[in-house]
Q: What sequence folds into this?
């Protein structure tokens, strides 16, 4: 009789231990088991840098960036990097130019006569806007001489492989 009671007690203890393990597993899985997928509205912290380590943008310590995964709201490589991430997971990804802002398009680098600017001061590094044929574009002056001004209308990060350290803050319901 003692042997049966002892086995019964061990059996009950084993069931209790298994139930506790299962409860912990379910609790952990529900907290971390959801992964970001296309269509999810997510919030992330990120630090963007060039391959040489120079940081060009970060929102760490600020408001997280929120977007819908798979939308055109952000560069495609960034959105793809978030897919499959768990909340509080951090990953670092290198995004080639073709999945970021594209390669430099030589046709978007224009040389215009200096006279277009009249008597205004024009220096390299200035930003200019164009509203040609109803299309607004912003460019950066890259060179100035006595007769011409070179303006680059490519996105400033075009042509670069970008490195992002991304932390998934939350998946918004």
A:
């Amino acid at each position: 009789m003692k042997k049966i009671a002892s086995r019964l007690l061990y059996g009950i203890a084993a069931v209790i231990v298994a139930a506790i393990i299962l409860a912990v597993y379910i609790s952990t899985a529900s907290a971390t088991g959801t992964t970001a997928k296309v269509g999810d509205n997510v919030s992330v912290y990120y630090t963007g840098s060039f391959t040489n380590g120079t940081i060009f943008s970060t929102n760490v310590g600020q408001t997280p960036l929120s977007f819908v995964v798979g939308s055109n709201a952000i560069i495609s490589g960034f959105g793809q990097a978030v897919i499959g991430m768990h909340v509080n997971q951090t990953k670092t990804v290198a995004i080639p130019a073709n999945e970021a802002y594209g390669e430099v398009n030589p046709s978007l680098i224009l040389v215009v006569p200096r006279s277009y600017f009249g008597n205004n001061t024009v220096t390299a590094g200035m930003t200019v806007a164009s509203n040609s044929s109803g299309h607004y574009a912003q460019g950066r002056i890259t060179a100035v001489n006595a007769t011409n001004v070179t303006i680059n209308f490519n996105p400033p990060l075009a042509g670069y492989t970008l490195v992002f350290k991304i932390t998934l803050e939350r998946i918004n319901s």
About this structure: The beta strands are 41-50, 55-58, 65-68, 90-95, 109-113, 127-132, 135-144, 148-152, 162-172. Residues 13-32 have pLDDT under 50 and may be disordered. The CA atoms of residues 37 and 83 lie 5 Å apart. Helices lie at 2-32, 76-82.
